[in-house]
Amino acid sequence: MQCKLMAAVLAAAIPLCASAQSSVTIYGVADAALAKEDTGAKGGSRTVVNSGNQSTSRVGFRGVEDLGNGLSAVFNLEAGVALDTGMGDSSLFGRRSVVGLKGGFGTVMIGREYTPIADVANASDINGQGFYGTNLNSFGANRLTRRISNSVNYKSNSMGGVIVSAGYGLGETLVGPSLDLMGLALEYKANNIYVGAGYHQIERLASGDDKEMIVGAGFTAGAVEVRANYMVANPTGNNNKYEQANAGVSYTFGANKIYGNLQQSKLEGGAKGNGFSLAYSYALSKRTNVYTSYASIRNNNKAAFGIFSAGAQVTPDATKGQSGSDPSAFSVGVRHSF
C-alpha cells in the first residue's frame, strides 16, 4: 500500500516539476554503508549493510505558492527510505509533513514537525546528526523529543541574526494527562557564530510535567569549525534525569573533511558513558561524497548507552544483563543528494 501511495504522489508531482511556473521540488538523499557493529556484549558483533550512516536516506516534496503581498503558501512532505532493503518508514511521511503560511511575520506550519530543541541539537552537533557518535542517542529511549505530531509551529524571520521558534503538539487524549508538548527555542546565527537554547514541557503524567532543555554553541574560523551542546531530559519522578554533553571540531582541506567529537551521557542513578567519534569525508562532487566513521562508548557497570548514526544504532541490551558493555561501530559508505 505504501509503495502504491508513493508512486501516486510521484506521478502527480512530475508534471508540476516540468512546468516552468511550478514551485514544487522533488529532492532526496541516497546513503548506504558497509558497517561493523559491536554491542560490546558476548555475541554482539555483526557486519551489516546500513542505510543512512551519514544522512538518513529520504525522498521529499516541497513547494511554495506566491499568494501576493509578501505572503506565500508552503508545504513539505518527507519520507524515509531504507536503501539496504528498499522499505519505507512505517509512517509514509513520518520525517516531516507540514503545510502553512510564510510572510513578513515569519512562518507558521501545521502537521508533523521538528521540535524547537531538535533545531538547536542539529545546529550544535559537529556531525550534523550524522555519522556514528552523533547526539541522536539523546533522543532515544523516550528522552528528548525530536519530532511532534498534531502540532502548530512558528518560526520568526531572522532579526539581526536572532530567530525565535515555538511549537505546540496536541496529545489529543480524551482522558488522563493531555500529552501536550510546549516548546520554545531562541537562536543566534551571524558572523560565523551560533548560539542556541531550547526548552520543552510535556504533560505526560498526572503527577507532573516532563521537562527537556538544550544549550548549544559553535563558531567557524576558516577551515576550522567547533560545535558543542549540553542536553537534559528530566521526566517526572525520582532518579530519572538524563544529561548529555558533546564537544566537537572539524577541519576542511580541499575536498577532504575530518570530524572529531567527545561525548558524555549520564543518568541520575549513577549510569555514565564516555564516548568519542571520528569521521572522514571526501567530496567527489557537490552532491556526492564517500566517507568512513568510527565511534565507541565506554559504559560503567550501570550504563547501557548506545551509538547512533543518522540511520542506525548499536545499543547494549540492559534487560539481558549487558549493562557495562562498551559498544563500537565502524562504517564505510557513499552518499548522494539530489
TrEMBL record:
It is found in: Cell outer membrane. InterPro entries: Gram-neg_bact_OMP, Gram_neg_porin_domain, Porin_dom_sf, Porin_Gram-ve, Porin_Neis. Keywords: Cell outer membrane, Ion transport, Membrane, Porin, Signal, Transmembrane, Transmembrane beta strand, Transport. Residues 7-301 form the Porin domain. It is a multi-pass membrane protein. Residues 317-338 are annotated as: Disordered. Residues 1-20 form the signal peptide. Its main location: membrane. Homotrimer. This is Porin. It comes from Massilia mucilaginosa.
